[in-house]
């Protein structure tokens, strides 16, 4: 079959590609009889539009002939046809590897057919997405049926609890499809969002190896994910994402209906309502699945008209916009401005608002909802028509992008060949014509989205009268004397220095290499920025700090647009940089954090631990569990963003020091929990679950201990984390995976993985610097200890200073049962009887040794120079004094080791009258004062320990006096 004449008619930039693709399939075409010209035209459309199809036809040379013989390229499948075709392939298989292969061969065959029909427009957009969803349904359901039968042979059939008559009923898994799968709107290379659940708790009916239903269905779910998601030589079936389940990745893989209902009733969040609009049972027990959705409907659709949905969706869109800017996704047809997501938000806003009152709006498919809006909410028919046309165009564009390589992307190409391919697949002569049409559709979507979700606030068009003069000064277009006079009048007492800073930026290499568009964006905001800086008391220092940031973002000028479009963010930037040099350095290193300045409601009200946990879970939902690099960047961004919020509240006085430490400690705990969860899941996927005498360990019996500032709930902005890892497993057993490890090695690798995720340097820096030297035997000891080994070491080998450190140790994340066991060990160690004289000698000796090596080298016995931490009368003296008294009296007073923070321990010492009320209050106030001063130094990018401040002399003297009273007695 000759394609020469057809190729000659193609756009010139596509002809070489067409020749290459035809040549790759030459043997396929030679085996086929002469075909009509119309087929050649269709074939070229597909070959130009899809490397994936070319690869599949080349690897499986009978595929094209088989498709033509079956007529599959010309017709839409009937309902249930995918399931029948797949069942024929796998029904007689016994080997799991062969089963996996047949799933993938089937999927690839059908994807060739679907891409062919989509690119040749033999199937319209709506039919394509319906068929793709039907293909996914069939793969999930048939794979589940095959695996369920095998699982029941091995472990028995899951049964319900006996009813009042003692009768049990077999239980089957219910697979809920979320997102595009749930709405029958799957795209050509979509992942599938699933939730696994089952009707009732109970156990299997196996005579010898019965399992709890939850264990059975978790194992079955894991097998199903492997069957669909694992990448083999034959590819994958569908990428599976389970993070929309209750509690996200931290939750069990499968839960009962009861647990589902309780979760959504008690903890369901707004974004989960949004997600549940599209939920649909796609596999397993569909009847029970529909019953569950009936029970959950009140969570999704409120009985009253719920206008709060606008705010929820607006916040979700704002979060997406931040991701778009952070990752440079402006050319993403799904997430970018005027993209697919905005059309979905418009429809779902009205579903959430009025769906409880109007059952017609309780539908999953977007193209079924849009036509209802004129009647239901009065949206103009023309607007609905524009949205529907734009949606179909955007979905076709999405398919054209994904058809090329079967990759999950919605990014428009930036290379000439890629652009030519997309334009051709979309039926346009060239990229320019396609881009113009795409731009019109995106503008229409953005306009309607703004009308519905995010009304545009009219801006004040009054021009700043001084703007022109500011630009003259910056560009050096007026005499220096005039510029200095202008700067002085505006509020720069150090006008010469200010002028130099502006001149340095103008002449900098960064500025010289800046593209014109970035320069114009800078000029848009510069006059207002300088006007605001001039009003600061420390205007010249503020100018230096802000210009540091400006220079850092010149090559990523979207951030300048952010400041131009959000005057409030610009105002906060100036205010906070004026107050803190540390703050300006943080923003210069991480300009993406400018997004966090937009909303003062969240900027100055950092969330509590529960909200931190929920927000982090939500942000991690859309990150592939295999993408470690993206995970680490997301964790670091989350940390930086929330540290910035805490600092903003700190700088402005909205939070006292103790609350600042609380928030920073909560943040570390939430991040540690996420890191441990990811590390555990990654190792389990590779090596299986550690085994116990009762079976596989489905949750990690592992805890992370925080010592020092983390343990004492006293974290500051630059604090490292002192950690110790403890596990509880039988070292003589191993994991149950194909690449099995002994439990001891598994947990050691778990600790290594946690450290790797925490302290690896990425473009955003480290998450935290980690110090493991407080583990048993220090750097020479095992990275992860068993609880028994930890206890034995503390009882038999630990030095007194290690028992001092244990006072400030607490479990910050991990298994609750093991945490309780650790608390008992800690109590036993701290409450041991001790010889007071010997204890006093050891504590004082250690303190003197530290002071000799760590205190300030200048005249440390005067009040002129004072190391807040290490000098006599400083923070460490207070800590050692407190620790001595706890170890000396814990045998008698258990309340002394209840808490790990110094303030509450001082309260306890006062409560049992070991310290007088006056001594305790003096030490509390001195401790808080020293920490506050060090904290303030840190925010100003100064040394946070050595100071020259005579005001602290009285506190230092008081601490020395109490030390002498207590530690020399």
UniProtKB/TrEMBL annotation:
Organism from which the protein derives: Nitrincola nitratireducens
UniProt-recorded name of the protein: Bifunctional glutamine synthetase adenylyltransferase/adenylyl-removing enzyme
InterPro entries with a match to the protein in the record: GlnE, GlnE_rpt_dom, NT_sf, PII_UdlTrfase/GS_AdlTrfase
What Gene3D superfamilies does the database record attribute to this sequence?
1.20.120.1510, Beta Polymerase, domain 2 (3.30.460.10), Glutamine synthase adenylyltransferase GlnE (1.10.4050.10), Nucleotidyltransferases domain 2 (1.20.120.330)
What residues does the Glutamate-ammonia ligase adenylyltransferase repeated domain cover?
44-289, 570-824
- Gene coding for it: glnE
PANTHER family on file: BIFUNCTIONAL GLUTAMINE SYNTHETASE ADENYLYLTRANSFERASE_ADENYLYL-REMOVING ENZYME (PTHR30621:SF0), GLUTAMINE SYNTHETASE ADENYLYLTRANSFERASE (PTHR30621)
Q: Which top-level group of life is the source organism from?
A: Bacteria
Q: Which GO terms describe its molecular function?
A: [glutamate-ammonia-ligase] adenylyltransferase activity; [glutamine synthetase]-adenylyl-L-tyrosine phosphorylase activity; ATP binding; ligase activity; magnesium ion binding
User: What CDD domains does the entry give?
Assistant: NT_GlnE_GlnD_like
One of the protein's GO biological processes: regulation of glutamine family amino acid metabolic process
Q: Which Pfam families match?
A: GlnD_UR_UTase (PF08335), GlnE (PF03710)
NCBIfam families found in the cross-reference section: PRK11072.1
Which keywords has UniProt assigned to this entry?
ATP-binding, Ligase, Magnesium, Multifunctional enzyme, Nucleotide-binding, Nucleotidyltransferase, Transferase
Q: Which GO terms describe its cellular component?
A: cytosol
Q: Looking at the record, which segments are called Adenylyl transferase? A: 466-969
Q: Where is the PII-uridylyltransferase/Glutamine-synthetase adenylyltransferase domain?
A: 314-452, 846-940
Q: What does this protein do?
A: Involved in the regulation of glutamine synthetase GlnA, a key enzyme in the process to assimilate ammonia. When cellular nitrogen levels are high, the C-terminal adenylyl transferase (AT) inactivates GlnA by covalent transfer of an adenylyl group from ATP to specific tyrosine residue of GlnA, thus reducing its activity. Conversely, when nitrogen levels are low, the N-terminal adenylyl removase (AR) activates GlnA by removing the adenylyl group by phosphorolysis, increasing its activity.
**The reaction(s) this protein catalyses:** [glutamine synthetase]-L-tyrosine + ATP = [glutamine synthetase]-O(4)-(5'-adenylyl)-L-tyrosine + diphosphate; [glutamine synthetase]-O(4)-(5'-adenylyl)-L-tyrosine + phosphate = [glutamine synthetase]-L-tyrosine + ADP
Under which EC number(s) is this enzyme classified?
2.7.7.89, 2.7.7.42
Q: Which cofactor does it need?
A: Mg(2+)
Hey, which family's this protein in?
Belongs to the GlnE family.
**Region called Adenylyl removase, residue ranges:** 1-456
